[in-house]
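Run log, item B.
One chain of 392 residues. Sequence copied directly from the ordering sheet:
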Amino acid sequence: MSTSIPACDYDVAIVGLGPAGATLARLLGQSGRLRVIAIDRKRPVQQSVAAVPGAQSDLCSGFRKPCGGLLAPDAQKALSRFGLSLPKSVLVDPQIFAVRTLDLGANLSRDYQRFYMNLNRAAFDDWLISLIPATVHLERDASVMNVGRVDVNQPFGSEGVPLRVVYKRHGDDYPRTCTVREVVGADGARSLVRRAFFPDRTPRQLLSIQEWFVDANPAPLYLSVFDPALTPAYCWGLSKDGHFVLGGAFERDGAKERFALLKEKLAARDFATANPLRRESCPVNFPHSVRDFCTGGERVSLIGEAAGFISPSSFEGLSYAFNSALALADAFLRQSSGEGLPVLPSSGAVQKDYHRATAALRHKLLCKCAKAAILYNPALRHLVMRSGLQAL
C-alpha cells in the first residue's frame, strides 16, 4: 500500500556530499527512479579562494576537514565493487607502504607494513561529485539551515506529512525551501540532520586538529603517534606532495594546548613542525558502543560518519561511507516504483530495510571498538610493540 504523502518537490534530499553523500547521489541518479536533490556547502575547486602563500593551490579548495587523505584497503575494495578506477589527478606523492609507530610515553618505535594510497582528499571528493549524473539536482556552495516536518504538530514520520529542507546558497539574499519524502544525513560528525531528529543519540566526539607544513623532513614519513598525556586516541603525520601534514584527535578541553605539546615533542625528535601553512579543525566521532551507531528512523536515514560509521581505532571512514551509501541506495531502489513517477511505500520502510542491511557493518565497527580498547591501553600497546609482532 502506497503512502498518502502529497506531492513533494523531491523524493530524496541528501545533505552533504562527502564520499557517502556523493556515492548515494551517484547510485540513485544512475537508477533514474527517484527525484533527488543533493546539497553541499563545499565550493567546487575552481571557485576556491586564493592559495595560502607557500602552499599549493589545491590546499585551498574549500575543503577544510582534517583528514590524512589515505585510502585504506577496505575502501579500495569498496571502490572496486563500483567498478571505479582512480584518476591520476587524485593521487599524490609519495606512496608510502610502511607506518612508523611512535609511543612517546614509553619511548618505543616500530615500523609496520601498510597498503594505503596517498590522496589529495579535496580532489578525491570533487572527483566523486563529478560522477553524479545530471539527473540529480546539485546545490553546491549551499548551507542547509533547517530540516524538519512541514507540519510541526504532527509526530515525526507521520503519514501524509512531507519533510522540509531549508538551505541558502552562497551569495543569495534569502534561503530556499524544498519539500521531500525522505531526508538523508550525509553531513559528517557535526550532522545537522542527526541533531535535528536524533538529539539524544550523539556519540562521543573528539576535536581533530591538523596543520600543514613545508616538508623539511629528510625522508618521506607516515607516522602514527601514541601518548596518553596528549590524547585518548592517536595522532598522525604524513608526507604529501612536498608538505608534511600533522594532526591528532584530542579531548575538546585543552585541545589546542595538547596539539602544541605534540609539536614540541616531535620537534625534540627532529621532526619539522615549525611555521605552519594552514590549520584545520573539526569534530570527529569516537564510537565506543552500539548506541553510537544510528542509521536513522522513519523517513530519515544517516550514512557515513553522520551515522557514527567510523573506525575508532584508525579513524578510517571512507570504506564505511561507501558501504553504507550502497546499502541505503539498494534499500531505496528495492522500495521504489520501477515505472513512472516513483511512489515510496509507507513511512519507515526504506529505513528498516537499510538498518537490516547494515547489520554486518555495525558488527564490524563493534569489533573495531574492541580493537581500540586494546590499542589505546598503554600496557597492552607496549607489550605488542616490544614483542615486535608483525613489525618490519
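Observations after the first pass:
- The two ends are 60 Å apart (CA to CA).
- The chain is about 25% helix and 25% strand.
Flagged for discussion on Thursday.
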